[in-house]
Amino acid sequence: MSKVNPVIKKISSLILIILLMVITFSYAMFQGGFVSWFLFYALIPFLFYSFLLAILPIRIQNVQREIKPTVVERGDTARINIRFQNKSWFPLLFLTVREINLDRQFVDKANGNTSNVFFVGWKRNFEWSYEIRNLNRGQFTFTGLEFSFSDFFGWSTREKIVNDIQTFTVYPKITNLKYQPIQMQYDQGGIASVVPIVKDTSMVTGVRDYQAGDRFSWIHWKSFAKNETLRTKEFEDRTTQHIYLCIDRTSSFNFEEVVDLTASILKSVVKNQGDISFLSYGLTRSFFPNIKTQSQFQKILQHLSVVQPDAIESIYSILTKELKNLNSSTFIFITSNLSDEMSQFFTNSTNLLRGAICFVVTDGQIMAKRNYPNVKVLLLSKEHFKNAFTEVSKP
């Protein structure tokens, strides 16, 4: 039906123009006199132009769309430059160009500048540009341009659609963080003591005097049986700074800021040649292990540009299932809603979490800070994202 309508419209325009010619000529023939023939000769050029516009081919070529800057983050402004050439030998009067099937937010934020009107004549090269401000995160597609041509009085109109498909990605807003390696403090016994992230308990290198905070499982009982002095086994240290990063997709509150912080941490760790893996669990599960290169980071950015808070499983079940194989990594969880269910997981899963960090993204409101065994909870507003790593090292 969409292919039939332009044909019917074109035939209707031709019939209208021919009828106007016949009517004005008949009026001049039967009425006679200067006025009637003047009217006929005055209308003939306009009718003839409309007739030619309806039947002659129109060629619009070399359509180009340029988006600047090439990398756009959430909240930025993009400038769209459009160029095209008119290769028609027939002089055109009015030309209207507009973007078609454009995302609604682009139309609203461009303030109606996604279309333009040109006076053509024999002009060949055309260009116009417009700005889209305060972009939302996401992946969008420009599908093409619609060119509309008209005569002096609108008796004959032509439309031509040029498909120019171009994908446009708006990435999360990345903040440059003050990077420093993460060193956690674990609660052992009654006080907190700084220990390496991993000790290989299968490799005993010696014994030393017992210190407050040492695990009871590390006590050298044979030595205690001989001299009744508490001694502690010393193990081979296998320090690691590998990070296991997970984003919360169960809550839509402040989700854009959560994505921004996630992207910022990933970029900072990769830039400083750290070890990090990333988990995104929602309707689909996306896991990116051992992110080292910029190409791997770009794949994650593509994912973060379209990710949505669409998880249908509870956060308790997601974390319980995913953290069984956490091993020696430092677990970092980023959320905007420290729910009771999450608190329950942090409280009941000390066997899974031997040192974890939970960043809670706030909008500046004061939230009650909670303490959990082996989990450090840090409240961050977007103004303090740059201090994320330095906040971890604070007692």
Account of the protein in words:
- This protein is of the alpha/beta class.
- The chain has four domains: 4-55; 60-171, Immunoglobulins (Immunoglobulin-like), CATH 2.60.40.10; 205-235, no CATH class; 243-393, 3-Layer(aba) Sandwich (Rossmann fold), CATH 3.40.50.410.
- The protein has nine helices and 18 strands.
- Strands 15-14-13-16-17-18 form a six-stranded mixed sheet. It has a five-stranded mixed sheet with strand order 2-8-7-4-5. It has a three-stranded antiparallel sheet with strand order 1-3-6.
- Helix 5 links the parallel strand 13 (243-247) and strand 14.
- Helix 7 (315-322) packs parallel to helix 8.
- It is rod-shaped and about 135 Å long.
- The termini are far apart.
Fraction of residues in β-strands: 25-35%
Proportion in helices? 25-40%
Largest sheet: number of strands, sense, barrel closure = 6 strands, mixed
Radius of gyration: 35 Å
At a glance:
With 395 residues, the chain is of the alpha/beta class. The protein has helices at 4-31, 33-55, 104-109, 221-227, 255-271, 294-306, 315-322, 340-348, 388-393, and strands at residues 60-68, 72-73, 78-86, 92-100, 115-121, 125-132, 138-150, 157-171, 185-188, 191-194, 199-209, 231-237, 243-247, 276-281, 285-288, 330-335, 356-362, 375-381. It has 4 domains: 4-55; 60-171, Immunoglobulins (Immunoglobulin-like); 205-235, no CATH class; 243-393, von Willebrand factor, type A domain (Rossmann fold), CATH 3.40.50.410.
